[in-house]
Structure formats: structure tokens, C-alpha cells
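WARN  no MSA supplied for this record, continuing single-sequence
INFO  ligand: manganese (II) ion
INFO  echoing inputs
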Amino acid sequence: MTSIHAQRRARLAAQLGAGGIAIIPTAPERPRNRDSDFPYRHDSYFYYLTGFAEPGACLVLTAEGDSLLFCRPKDVEREIWDGYRLGPEAAVATLDVDAALPSDRLDTELPRLLENRQRVWFPFATHEGLAARVEGWLNAVRARVRYGALCPAEQADVCALLDEMRLVKDAHELDTMRRAADISARAHIRAMQRSARMLRAGQDVREYHLEAELLAAFREEGSQFPAYGSIVAAGANACVLHYRADTAPVRAGELVLIDAGCELDGYASDITRTFPADGRFTGPQRALYELVLASQQAAIAATRAGARFNDPHEATVAVLAQGLLDLGLLDAGKVGSAQDVIEQRAYFQFYMHRTGHWLGMDVHDCGSYVEPAEVGQTSERRDPLSGETILNRPSRILRPGMVLTIEPGLYVRPAPGVPEQFHGIGIRIEDDAIVTEGGCELITRGVPVEADEIEALMH
Ligand code: GLY
Ligand code: MN
Ligand code: MN
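INFO  complex generated
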């Protein structure tokens, strides 16, 4: 049976055009300090086509569908220090490639492989130094033109093809993403329960205690890493969008915002929940929470095949705009109707990010947010806040198998005219959705979102 990775390679090969050849390296190892490296993470494009997570590898694929893998050679001494290497010999059967060579042969083999090819594809602006290396290989081909060799005349960005492929997930990917989402959902529940339990016991709870609970939960279920740096933000820290788990005290009566998700077998999950540290929402907290939740429900209802990527955002903004007026966060006397709030972007004071992004191997996954068939249909608008002229293009039409996050929020910094009872409250609710024909499948609801349900699980 052909492996899923071989099937993906065949689909890519079919798009390389006559005489095309693609070069797709994995990520380098990155030093953290002296001789310690950051934990190794493969390149997502490379992994998508090989399922191979070792460093030091590179895939070469031709339009005819031939696949050649360069990988680290077996080396008993290095393996004693750094661990097992698959090696080229075993790679052929294990990774279902046509041939494999040791990676130190790359510079000698590539000129030979590029000779008489029309177009060379590689990831642009992704691997530092790769473009220069390709130039070097092409120069080596040019040195042989007097002997009749032809040198590729075109270079193209292989990410353009792979981004489109990766945007619509296959069954194998969706299965992995559901499992990653389940693990993350259970981790959020554990962190909520730990917060309430420690506060009930009179303990000094810090953001890092909750982060520790998340990390333990991810690891205990086999996840390799967090998909991104976990945000555990107590109280007003939630209003700092890129806050990280730190040492701040988690206090009864305040909210905690946790934005955290694990990576499982190369796929990310991305969940945010906001909960009362001790398990009981106060009145103002609940009022804002219910508003964010209602705006998320509107976004979810707008997420289905055939809708546009921007539709959930617009649905969110419509609900938030009205809610901000109703709760007195915006003064109708000053900003006018909900429609005015939307047109003037007055909600931006409290909601300054978009409602979602593609999710996949990368937490902010690849894939164009513009509908490819309509990329030339531009219109201009003047942004009411910055005064800049912005070129709009029709946003992406959603298709079954695309995965996106739905993550509205409200962040209330103290400011003149903002009711004090809301000061310092930051709320985001984030779920991961697979687009389906009639709607979407929320894969992160293993952790509840309803305020009553959150209170119940914390008691
Ligand atoms: N955790 C990153 C994001 O929500 O986009
Ligand atoms: Mn997100
Ligand atoms: Mn997130």
C-alpha cells in the first residue's frame, strides 16, 4: 500500500510541471547556548511529505514522481551520544522513498540532479542560506553547459503548492488533530481544577503552577511539545495579548486566561479558556463572559463550507459591538449605533485581533486567506482609525477539511469613561473548528465553555 506521505509526494510531483524538480529541506538544529540546542522541531513542509522527524535531511522530488531522500548516515559513535539514526539504507523501505543517500552527498549530487531540468522549486524565504545554496548548485551546472548540459531557467516557490495542499486536511491529519485537541481539552480542565483546589486549600497559587499542570497533562498523553508558548494570565495580565505564563499570583475573585495547546505527532491544537480562579464568576465577569461567548456562537454559526474566512469575524464583531453598547463600555451618545461602532472600528479599543487563523501543523498554519480565483478583484477602503488606504481582496471561501480557530475576546484596560467594574478583565474563548459541508465540527469542546459548566467542573 502506498503511504500517505508517498501519496502527498505524488500529488506535489504532478504539479511541478514538465522538467520540474523540487528541493525540500527539513529544519536545522538551533543552538540555545554553547552546546545546548533548542528541542528539535522538524520543518512542517518536509514532514508533510516524509513523516520523517530527524534533523539533517532533505527531500528531492521530480515531476516524474521520483523521490530521493538525503539523511544523516548511520554513525555508531554519534548514535551513542545523540541517539538512533534511521540512515539511508533503512530509509527507503521505512519512508517509502525511491532512493536515499547520506546528507553529505547533497552538494555533489544536486548539480547532477538539476542538470537538464527546466524549473527548480524550493521553499522561498524559509531556510536561511538555501537560495544561495541553490545558486551554488546552479553555478555548478552552468560550468558544464559547454558539454551540452542545460541549466534550469526558472525558480519557483514550492510553498505556493504545498500551502494549498496543507490548507485542506486529509483524514489522517484530521484524526491527529482531533486527538491533539482532546489532550489539550483535558489539560485545560486539569488546570482549572488545580486553580480552584489550591485556592480552597489556602495555597499561594502562581501562574506557573497552572502551566505545570498543562505541561504534565500534555506529556502524560504522549504529546511531544506545547504547540506554542502557553499563556497563563492571571487577572489584568489577560489584557496583554502575548503574555506568557509567569510568576504572578492567581487570586480568588479574579479571572485566569489560559491559551495553551499541545502538539501531537506534528499537529497543533490551540485552545483558550477564561475562568474564575476560585470557580465562581462575579457579576461583571459573567456579563462580559456571556458577551464573548455569544459572539463566539455567532462566529461558529457563520463557519461552514461556502462561507468566507472573514464571515465569522464579522459575525463576532456585530455581536460585540451591540454588547459593548448594552454594557456601557461604549457610550452610544459618543459612538452612535452598533453599525457606527463597526464602521468606525470603535470596538477596537476592546477587541484588537482577528477572530481566527488556519490551524494545522503550525499553530498559525499556512494557506492563503484570499480566495485564489478572486485575487485580482481588489477594492479600496479607508481605515477609520489609521486613515490608511487598505486594499481589500475577497477572503477565502471555506471548504470541508479546512481547520481554523474561532477565538473572540474582550480586553478592558482602565481608561476614562470605561466602567470601573470591568477594569482589568480580559476574556478570550478559543475553539478549533473543522469546516464541514453544513457547518463546522468543534474538536476542542472536551473542555466546556458555558459559564455554569466551568463553575461546575471547578467545584
Ligand atoms: N495561541 C496563539 C493564538 O491563539 O493564535
Ligand atoms: Mn489561535
Ligand atoms: Mn490560542
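The chain has a mean pLDDT of 97.
INFO  checksum written, moving to next record
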